Amino acid sequence: MVSKSELNFYKKEYQRLFDQVPCCILVIDKNFKIVRTNKQFKDMFEPVIGKYCYKSLKGRDSQCSDCTARASFDDGKMHTGHHVWKTSKGKEIYFQITTVPLESESGVPEFVMEMAVDITKTRQLEEEKLEAERLAAVGQTVAGLAHGVKNLITSLEGGMYLLSSGMKKSNIDRIAKGMDILDRNVIRVSTFVKEFLNFSKGRSISVSKCDPGKIVKEVVLAYETQAAQLDITLENKTKDKITLAPMDYENILECLTNLVGNAIDACRMSENRGQCFVHVKVYEDDDVISFKVTDNGCGMDYEVKNKVFTNFFTTKGNGGTGLGLLTTKKIIQEHGGTIKLKSEPGKGSTFKISLPRKRLPKLK
Fold first, then answer.
1. What is the 8-class DSSP label of residue 62?
2. Fold annotation for 12-118
3. Which pTM value belongs to this model?
4. What homologous superfamily does CATH list for 206-364?
5. C-beta of residue 7 within 8 angstroms of C-beta of residue 15
6. CB 275: neighbour CB atoms within 10 A?
7. Domain spans of the chain, in order of start
8. Distant-in-sequence contacts of 311-317, Cβ < 8 A, 24+ apart
9. CATH node for 125-201
């Protein structure tokens, strides 16, 4: 049996541990009122005992939908999340929150302990990395522009040479050939400039709560008729419903449209005519939303794979500018995500877009 002095000793040790843990700790009751806090919390925030946690820390008049404390009360399990709290000095701090239910003898949670770790510096590093990635994308775009303009100039110079030399020699065939090259490349210049202007202006990110599954459905529906006419099997392979996520619906739709359109073109150029497929799906694993577009078309070799996201590269000859995948990459980076490619010649390709929820743009 524990003596009174021993009990007091354990209480003091518990209190010392509670106060010295290097994170903010608060205990919340079923009404979401704060009943206890540790020293680090008290040093950073104004007195909050007896106040509603969502009102005193988040400045809201009602409980938020992504509340980890409420989730712990509901299912009696540990939950994690992220929140921005404002200190007594008005400084906003980005916290990683972990909530743990404190069960009573009946087994029902009476309180929830909320532990908050300051990850503001980590968040800033992530944002700096994202900015560096965006700047790198700008550098690739500029390099690609220079490469594209150089190719156009080379073609125009070739046409001018044929035209000039043909006129000097009164060679009608040479003149006609030079004019044909100039005509085709003037159209290429016009297309290139228009598409690059659209690419450079883009659309400002307009973030809202979107259903990723709905985006996939819309893209598949848009290409159904074209795929059927080409005898290509186009299928939506999504199995599970994905929780709404903050993203730009139209921009992500454009990304998938580019990928599915390219996949259909790859099947059209394949030797497996009549047996080609394009599969599209979205799924979520470990808080990462992934879109995947897979085809069994013509595929790409090592050299093509290395160029596919740079230098306005296209395999469509005069029919493409190579801006589709650059635009796609730009949009994905603006959403804090990545896009990867796996491909083998004659076997097909898979493009995978990965969007970690913690890096998605914030709702305004």
1. S
2. Beta-Lactamase (3.30.450)
3. 0.52
4. Histidine kinase-like ATPase, C-terminal domain (3.30.565.10)
5. no
6. 12
7. 12-118, 125-201, 206-364
8. 311/140, 311/143, 311/144, 311/147, 311/148, 312/144, 312/145, 312/147, 312/148, 312/192, 313/144, 316/265
9. 1.10.287
Measured in whole angstroms, how far is the alpha carbon of residue 108 from the centre of its chain? 39
What is the bridge-based pairing of β-strands 277-285 and 233-236?
parallel
Full pLDDT tens readout for the chain, 364 residues: 656 776 666 677 777 777 788 889 999 998 899 999 998 888 888 888 988 888 877 766 666 666 888 888 888 889 988 888 888 888 888 899 999 998 776 778 889 999 999 998 888 888 788 777 766 766 666 666 666 677 677 778 888 888 888 898 888 988 888 888 888 778 777 766 766 666 665 556 789 999 999 999 999 998 888 899 899 999 999 999 999 999 999 889 988 988 998 899 889 888 877 789 999 999 999 999 999 999 999 888 877 776 676 654 444 544 444 566 777 888 898 899 999 999 999 899 999 999 999 899 888 6
Sheet strand arrangement including 277-285: 233-236, 277-285, 288-295, 348-356, 338-344
